[in-house]
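Sharing a chain and its predicted structure for anyone who wants a worked example. Both blocks are below, sequence first, tokens second.
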Amino acid sequence: MTLEVSVPDPPAQSEGAPGMGYNDVEPPEADASDDYHRDDIEAALAAGAWVDGFEAWAAQTELEESEFRLLERHGLVDGLDFFWDPASEAVAYHAPTLSDDAREALHGNAADVVDAELKSLGEHVSETLSEAYLVREDGRVRFVTEE
């Protein structure tokens, strides 16, 4: 099944903070010396990583347009948070959980499916960032940000 919607703008990455109760990965230790590359990731998302990851996800998701629109209305797509995890040496993500209002708008087990699909979107974009927009040089990482 393919979700046929316009690709929304990428979520801003300046709001998230390491150690804030991540559901999808172990939270990174709060250490001022670590660099989570949020600005670099935000630039890479704008340079095409978001579109690439979103389109890969949309081509295989089971969500219907109405369910996706619910995610947008509740700010859950905008709430996706991507960061460099120095422990795993990969781009990690945090997907926000559905609010009670969003769960009530869905019927039966649909809330669990929608929640899982939001996490799948985060995973697709995270993998896209890691595989196509990340360059490792001399033990350092940088993200491709040129369009």
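Comments welcome. The first helix runs from residue 38 to 58.
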